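[step 3/7] fold_predict: job queued, chain A
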Amino acid sequence: FQYWPDVTEVHRFHTEVFARDASVPVISSAALAVNSPVNAGWTSRVIIEGGPQTVEEGVEEERMRPVSHGYFKTIGTPVLQGREFTEFDRGDTPAVVVVNEALARKYFPNEPALGKRLQFWGVMREIVGVVGDVRFMGLNAPPRPAVYSPMSQVPMSQFDIIVRSSEAPDQIVSRMRSEILQIDRQLAVYNTGSFGTFLAGSLAPQRFNLIMLALFASLALVLAAVGIFGVISYGVSQRVHEFGVRLSLGADQGQLRRLVLGQALRMTAIGIVIGLAGSLAGGRFISGLLFDVAALDPATLAGVAVFLSGVALIASVAPAIRAGRVDPMVALRQE
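[step 4/7] structure written:
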């Protein structure tokens, strides 16, 4: 930390950026943060007062997230206990932090976290608030323990600006860029967009995998329907003589159609049972692609079974109709 920035100057810069952004009429709330809510951020060793003091004793690294006052209101994270940061949490005031539920459960499972102290970067800091968990490691990953500190007490030269507004993102970005460039024309404003855009980017790998899975599943469904049609059609062609005998003995065309459809549905039922067993066995392999959706959802499995039965029924209709139209005289002449 030989080149640690001047705390007073950095705090002045943060204050001016915050004030200019908050002054834009269409912005309802604003905040600064070293890491946005969809950014995993970085970690640092956290020493709990009265707990392990060295790595060998069990000191662990936890997620660090320097933010300004107004951050939790802006991104919609609830403050469950205590308070959030204010403009009075500065570099010349007692060092404080806010922790998330995951960290409170980990280090203070049987007692309140408020008033406890923890240390990172050589400074002991008091916990003044507990906030809800945020899945900044990805929607499919459990919330990780995190420590939020005031940016005024952990100064950083690079940061994100987060605002809440009902106006279009492009218009907001244009206004904010204009305000920031009034501070210094050489400031770099980049990687801008709505929260939905950044969230979509973080979900891109899962979305691609699910799209490919859906395409292959659709192809498999088409091949299954074609296969059912082909098998039933071939079976009907091989049983023409049998159908002729049945018609000669008094069976009607409706009975033959029901016979063919019944056999098709029995084969489909066997396939569905085997498929459900495979789904139960392999559901855990796709659980990482899902968020708040069970990989083995009974309603979904039942819906798929009904849908596949319908596809099999449709694929069997044409062969069944052809079986009912067999001419008994022609059929009995066939060997």
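[step 5/7] annotate
The radius of gyration is 33 Å.
Residues 204-238 form the longest helix (35 residues).
exit 0
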